[in-house]
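quick one, 94 residues, struct below
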Amino acid sequence: MSGVSLPAIGRAGPAVSAGLRRGVAALGALRWLVPTALFEGCRDFEPHYMPAAAFHDALTQAGFEILDAKRTFLAEISGLAWVRRAEGATEIDR
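---
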């Protein structure tokens, strides 16, 4: 052998196994990502994503205080906001 002891090789086994599990999980995610991307690519429509400023305005008008906000998901097309009910906000009648 090339100077590597058998116990050292044995200790690498769990790390290799964990890496393989992560790889299998990543491939599993592609089961929904690839068909969705193909579907979106073939649809005949113009996407209309709300600009960040309009998103924040809508949340504020709905009575929320924005604690944090960021763009997220693929190509940062989705808006994600962490909000709480603003002080003095009234209940929305449904």
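The mean pLDDT is 78.
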